[in-house]
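hiii so um. not sure if this is the right channel but i have a protein structure encoded as tokens and i wanna go backwards to a sequence. like what aa goes where. can anyone help
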């Protein structure tokens, strides 16, 4: 949007304020001014001249020899324009003048005659593209006056970023910005001249009939009837003012409508009243498929969502968007009906968007204008029309249908809170003064002010106390806020304990155990559930109401099936694959942390799988158990292994699963992959699974760390292979070995499990490597043999014999 500084100056005295200062203050306090354009730049030395004599150039057929009086004496000028004539008022540029096109004039001979200066065309002054002739001025133009002043170019045009006033419908006209400037510079806002004698006509007392059938789309509709015999053309001041802000003059009735819109922000529309059938106006919804040829010559197809202005037979305008061509005012118009209305902002925007029409009216109506503007615009239009065309006749008052909404609610402002928000001591009296400068009435004192918004002043951005504080702050000037660093209490963020354990587990398995981290979706596909055997086991899943795909309609119960799919794909290209993932499992049968919320239990888990082609299954399970030992050691959890209790997931081998227990609570599992599940997923290599329940691992007690010096003496190693029943766990055997070995037994490790020939039915062979070490000496073979024999004897008493 463009603003004329001269136009603004009619409503508020800006004497002594430079255009750049206006732009800077508006940018800091109201709206972004993108540019300041001076239309008369470069024309400062060009004056009104009078051609006192003109004759043909003696040495050139197409040149004229002229004598020009520009107020400081008569000079001789050679002119090439065909339309120059004696007695004309013209634009004269003297010697030494630099024109807007960059040409600097100097006295020079043209075909033997010395020419002093130039008689200018529009193109040479950059006021148009006309090169064919000079610019001829009106006869009453005073000789010697600056051209910029005579042509109304002694102005500054402010180019505003429209996005910065989207929330301010009161600023879509010059008068709204004049109110802002009056508040900013402490000047008085002049009252807008209107036809104060114009009243709203009572129904039936000469009022133009208006039927408001769609009050939701048009809460208020006003109309003014005007009659005339002839109308003058738009006066120069009106045409120049419209041109200055980028609008083309058309005719007096249309130009005054545009002028009022640019001044008040309220669009109006003139109809040729003689072309309105039935002598009435009906505001209604369009009928589906209804057509209307708009002013741009395009036939528009309407829908029931569109609001139209109709006469007794047809639609004549699209409400808030554009008028219709059949009722357009023209040179033959003798009766005009001026529309000024309030339309629903959302419906205007929807209609304009669907039709692809962006007009000046749409830009304003879609913001939600001041409800009082329609009447103000009609009074202003009537005043201007009577001023420029005194012969017009206004028939009675203006007609109307609909009412104004109730006034805005009174708001409260606490000065102490405003000072706290702004960060400096702003006196209460100044707050009241700042609010009063933009039309708000602030009363009271002390702890609370009562603030009444101005009647009919649309400010959608002022609805609460903080909005009032913003108004006070911007008008007082944000530069008054002291430049100081904020004082805040800084505390390090507290890391979620589960998240800390999760990161440590991933770090251990990835960096120390060689796993690759994966990320999968939290959804379970039908194929995964079928492959893992969950469907056959009747496992419950949380169903999704709006799934991303047709086959992933449930939340996963475990991370393992997704990892197994990745495992199968990677084993195609790799001999060995190790994968790990951290995430949530969703178990609807378990109680939720949020009681009564009807939500499933979410369990955070770290799951890992590993497989190696050609590996021994027992050896791979031992390696997975070793990964679990490293993991729990890094987490500081003292644990033991036991046979699993309760029902196992279908993907775990029931006879080859180790439950990891800390302080009697299961924290995880290590197991061989169930052969049937392995076949379902197409995994031919031996595979193992490791799971860690993060909540249980986080709650598990951590024994205090004990430091002991590293022994300076070498260990003595012995291997021990024993035959034990299948039901006896490795952990039980290790416990007995440690009890017999005492403090001298420094390390114990399982390195082989064997099942097969030369073993009794239901038995297996476990091979351990034992390290014996003393803190004060090197143990002799005899001492080691004695201690080792105690271990063998203790195991024998339990029915665990040496393997022969």
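sure thing!! here u go:
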């Amino acid at each position: 949007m463009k603003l004329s500084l001269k136009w603004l100056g009619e409503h508020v005295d800006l004497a002594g304020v430079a255009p750049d200062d206006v732009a800077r203050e508006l940018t800091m306090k109201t709206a972004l001014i993108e540019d300041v354009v001076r239309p008369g730049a470069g024309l400062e030395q060009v004056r009104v001249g009078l051609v006192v004599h003109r004759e043909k150039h003696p040495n050139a057929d197409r040149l004229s020899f002229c004598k020009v009086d520009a107020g400081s004496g008569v000079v001789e000028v050679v002119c090439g324009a065909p339309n120059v004539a004696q007695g004309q008022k013209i634009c004269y540029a003297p010697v030494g003048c630099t024109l807007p096109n960059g040409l600097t004039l100097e006295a020079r001979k043209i075909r033997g005659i010395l020419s002093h200066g130039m008689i200018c065309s529009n193109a040479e002054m950059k006021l148009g593209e006309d090169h064919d002739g000079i610019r001829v001025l009106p006869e009453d133009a005073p000789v010697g006056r600056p051209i910029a002043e005579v042509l109304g170019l002694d102005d500054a045009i402010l180019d505003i970023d429209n996005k910065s006033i989207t929330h301010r419908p009161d600023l879509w006209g010059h008068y709204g910005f004049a109110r802002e400037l009056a508040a900013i510079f402490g000047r008085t806002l002049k009252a807008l001249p209107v036809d104060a004698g114009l009243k709203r006509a009572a129904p039936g007392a000469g009022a133009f009939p208006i039927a408001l059938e769609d009050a939701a789309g048009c809460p208020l509709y006003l109309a003014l009837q005007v009659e005339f015999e002839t109308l003058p053309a738009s006066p120069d001041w009106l045409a120049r003012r419209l041109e200055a802000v980028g609008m083309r003059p058309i005719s007096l009735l249309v130009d005054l409508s545009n002028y009022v819109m640019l001044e008040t922000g309220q669009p109006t529309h003139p109809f040729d009243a003689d072309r309105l059938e039935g002598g009435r106006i009906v505001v209604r919804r369009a009928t589906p498929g209804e057509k209307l040829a708009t002013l741009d010559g395009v036939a528009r197809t309407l829908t029931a969502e569109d609001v139209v202005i109709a006469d007794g037979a047809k639609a004549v305008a699209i409400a808030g968007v554009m008028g219709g061509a059949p009722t357009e005012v023209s040179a033959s118009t003798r009766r005009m009906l001026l529309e000024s209305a309030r339309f629903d902002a959302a419906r205007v925007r929807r209609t304009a968007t669907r039709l692809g029409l962006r007009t000046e009216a749409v830009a304003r109506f879609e913001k939600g204008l001041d409800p009082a503007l329609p009447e103000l615009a009609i009074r202003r239009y009537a005043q201007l029309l009577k001023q420029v065309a005194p012969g017009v006749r206004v028939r009675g008052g203006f007609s109307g249908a609909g009412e104004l909404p109730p006034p805005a609610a009174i708001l409260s402002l606490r000065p102490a809170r405003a000072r706290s928000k702004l960060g400096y001591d702003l006196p209460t009296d100044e707050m009241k003064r700042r609010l009063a400068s933009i039309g708000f009435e602030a009363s009271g004192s002390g702890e609370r002010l009562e603030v009444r918004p101005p009647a009919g002043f649309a400010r959608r951005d002022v609805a609460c106390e903080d909005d009032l504080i913003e108004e006070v702050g911007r008008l007082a000037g944000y530069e008054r806020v002291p430049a100081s660093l904020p004082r805040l209490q800084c505390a390090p963020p507290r890391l979620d304990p589960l998240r800390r354990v999760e990161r440590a587990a991933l770090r251990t398995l990835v960096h120390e155990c060689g796993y690759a981290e994966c990320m999968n979706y939290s959804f379970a596909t039908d194929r995964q559930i079928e492959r893992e055997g969950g469907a056959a086991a009747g496992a419950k899943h949380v169903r999704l109401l709006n799934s991303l795909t047709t086959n992933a309609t449930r939340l996963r119960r475990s991370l393992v099936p997704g990892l197994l799919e990745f495992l199968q794909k990677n084993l195609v290209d790799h001999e060995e694959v190790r994968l790990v993932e951290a995430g949530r499992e969703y178990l609807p049968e378990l109680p939720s942390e949020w009681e009564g919320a009807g939500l499933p239990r979410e369990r955070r888990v770290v799951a890992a799988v590993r497989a190696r082609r050609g590996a021994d299954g027992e050896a791979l399970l031992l390696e997975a158990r070793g990964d679990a030992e490293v993991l729990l050691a890094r987490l500081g959890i003292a644990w033991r292994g036991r046979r699993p209790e309760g029902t196992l997931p279908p993907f775990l081998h029931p006879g080859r699963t180790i439950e990891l227990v800390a302080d009697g609570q299961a924290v995880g599992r290590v197991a061989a992959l169930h052969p049937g599940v392995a076949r379902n997923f197409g995994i031919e290599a031996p595979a193992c699974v490791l799971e860690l329940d993060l909540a249980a691992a986080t709650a598990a007690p951590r024994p205090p760390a004990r430091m002991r010096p590293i022994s300076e003496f070498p260990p003595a190693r012995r291997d021990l292979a024993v035959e034990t029943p299948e039901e006896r766990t490795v952990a039980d055997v290790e416990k007995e070995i440690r009890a017999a070995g005492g403090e001298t037994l420094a390390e114990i490790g399982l390195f082989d499990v064997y099942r097969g020939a030369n073993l009794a039915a239901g038995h297996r062979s476990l091979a351990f490597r034992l390290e014996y070490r003393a803190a004060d000496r090197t143990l002799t073979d005899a001492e080691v043999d004695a201690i080792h024999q105690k271990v063998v004897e203790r195991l024998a008493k339990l029915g665990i014999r040496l393997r022969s």
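oh and The first strand starts at residue 2 and ends at 4.
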